[in-house]
Amino acid sequence: MTQKNETLSPDGLITPRILPLLDPTFRPSILAARAFRDAVRATGRAQRIGLALEQVGGVFHFSIELAPLDHALASLNTRRLVRFVKFLLWSRGACRIHVDGPAWVAELLRTHFRETKTGQFDAHIMGERTYEKPFEIVLAPAALPPARGDARPLGRHMNGCRIGFDLGASDRKAAAVIDGKVVFTEEIGWNPVVQRDAQWHFDEIMSGLKSAAAHLPRVDGIGGSSAGLIIANRVRVASLFRGVPPAEFDSRVAPIFSNLQKAWDGIPFDVVNDGEVTALAGAMEMDAGAVLGIALGSSEAAGYVTPEGGITPWLNELAFVPIDDRLDAPADEWSGERGCGVQYLSQQAVGRLLTPAGISLPPEMTLPEKLVQVQNLMKSNDLRAEKIYRTIGTFLGYAVAHYTDFYDVKNVLILGRVTSGPGGEMILEEAVRALKTEFPDLAERIQWRTPDEKSKRHGQAVVAASLPVIPPNSPPADLKRILGKA
What we know:
single chain; 486 residues; alpha/beta; Nucleotidyltransferase, domain 5; four-stranded mixed beta sheet; 15 helices; 15 strands; globular
């Protein structure tokens, strides 16, 4: 599959066997990482570096093999180590990394996170913003701290009258559910990223909840799905709210879901990252575990359900994980990192591929509006639109192969607005083709799943409704007061 020798090119990049139609210079991270690993092992002097990622939810162990410093391959050590650690940070999360290896490895990482813009971004988000602690690189004195961290059950509760909501960057969705039966769904376009007023965000979410509540005899519990890092119902980091000034973010946005719960008389109210709900939706539909859910929407949302059917304290923010290793890959608008999944597996990918596809749309159009235009072109069998979807499918195939190096995956659920319509079928077709061509062993192991069209659009809100546990005799919210009814 990859070069198994010591003569990698100076940049360490590998040309894929399946080239994306509209992005032929794409160089998959999975191929570069595996080629480097094989070449280092072939030296007979690979240096194994142990890493332990520590966060409030546990300690997670990993290892990487680097080239000896006196070997030509050592020129690739920094990039491979930094990209490996970046994947670990955004998939698992950590405020402290313990290094079991030579001191120069720990110092290399400290330099990256202290002196580069992308490293500084990661350190700030992982430290103060997410875990509210300084981000540290620690050289282990003897051995790594013991691994720990348990999975827990998520959702699947159907009893009672429930509201589910899903907050994305281009729309918000709400659903009303009675004993597992969906009685109402709603999708409202919005543009939260530019809104500076925290009250605007509160009012918009409340509006969706009220719309769903109007179709229920009572409300026993509310479950939510939101882009961003949500820990114990508290917003740590979320691009949806990045227009809100920092001081107001801390006082009004961070506790926004707790404040909403108070407004609904303290009924059970649980909110988790939208990626977790994506994976839960797949696990519930398939009645299976080892599920990686990937939603191609305004961003790339991801979540993971273990083989046993639980969720972990991992972050699973794969939008920030690089899947393309070329040096001039498109940069993420927020972190500045190049080659991140968001530029390949979201509406941003559609917008980026318009020009190479030969499709000209007014620049003032939003990304959701551009996606609608591409979807309309697909309905008329426009070959330019087809190339966009097939290109995204190739990206997806190589990305999923990369993810399997870090997740135990047997089922992949694909959904999100980008996958709606016939274009979604082409995305899946090309992803499967990339796996069969480049990674035949993975192609045999992985089952691909897609929900029906309505579930693709509203499924996360419906599944989110199953999140809260409603205890027996739990009092419902006072709907007359909340809805303003006499």
